[in-house]
Amino acid sequence: MGKRRKNPLQLAFNIMPIDAAATSAAVEKRLEEVRQYRQIGFVRREAAMIPAYSPRYHGATNQISKPTENIATWNIDKEAELKAKDRLLERP
């Protein structure tokens, strides 16, 4: 058949076509995250183990790993993100 005509708006602004399947999958993923948050709340990450001191004879010895700090930061940020998504869906 012939070429498909483009939307005049796409011609005027040179807008890329939207991938409907990818958009639908992304929207469903967001909705599923919020649905789980509403039903079971936020599942926090926990530190698996407390690291013990061991001397480092190789590599950079002045670097410190802060896994507990990273986990706490992730927990706070993720919970705030889920609350914001929940509020967006509650708007009339």
Commentary on this structure:
The protein has 92 residues and is mainly alpha-helical. The chain has a domain of 26 residues. 55% of the residues lie in helices and 0% in strands. The longest helix is centred in the last third of the chain and has 24 residues. The model has no long low-confidence stretch (mean pLDDT 79).
- Give the count of helical stretches: 3
Helix amount, in percent? 55-70%
> Which of globular, elongated, flat, extended, rod-shaped describes the shape?
elongated
**Strands, total number:** 0
Note the main sheet: none
SSE class:
mainly alpha
Short structural description:
It is built from 3 helices and no strands.
Keywords:
92 residues; mainly alpha; elongated
Annotate the secondary structure layout.
Layout: H1 8-13, H2 20-40, H3 67-90
Helix pairs in contact: 2-3
